[in-house]
Amino acid sequence: MYSNPHATVGLVINVVSQAIFQDTLTAYLVAMPFAIGSHYVLDFVKETHLKDDVFVYDVLPSWIYYIAGFFSGNFLLFLVSWIEGNLFDIIDKKFYLSVVNSKKFPATHYFHKHKTGIETTLFGTKLTSVVCVILFIIISLII
Ligand SMILES: [Zn+2]
Questions:
Q1: Which stretches of the chain score pLDDT less than 50?
Q2: Residue 10 · residue 86 · CB < 8 Å
Q3: How much distance in Å is there from the Cα of 139 to the middle of ligand 1?
Q4: What is the pTM of this model?
Q5: Cα of 1 from ligand 1 centre, angstroms
Q6: C-beta of residue 11 within 8 angstroms of C-beta of residue 76
Q7: How far apart are the first and last CA of the chain?
Q8: What share of the chain is helix, strand, coil (3-state, %, to 5)?
Q9: Ligand 1 centroid vs 42 CA: distance in angstroms?
Q10: pLDDT, tens only, 34-57
Q11: What span, in angstroms and rounded, lies between the C-alpha atoms of 42 and 25?
């Protein structure tokens, strides 16, 4: 799965935890395993490769995510959520260097051994990204 949905789910988990627990540190600590673990679960959704549309549907949404986090006044929450939601890809894709140069930085599969999953269409992959952008913008406005 692309980084934008992972980040958004990580954010939702952290925001719910912050709403439940009055202590910020406790909320972060309780949310951490769920936000990190959500990556493994979400990767059972097999997205269609965006190819040339990856900028519009994953890179740009990541920029918007951080801008929304900045203007919400909760940048740390957005940053931590992004890292936790994408941690398994950050590790297996060597800080995404595997995406840039897979020969020099070969991807590992420590957290990506999924044999089965739910296939999605290109439209479904793009729609997921758009829904996630709407969701994290709403979150940035209400927290
Ligand atoms: Zn992954």
A1: none
A2: yes
A3: 23
A4: 0.95
A5: 6
A6: no
A7: 26
A8: 70, 5, 25
A9: 8
A10: 999 999 999 999 999 999 999 999
A11: 25
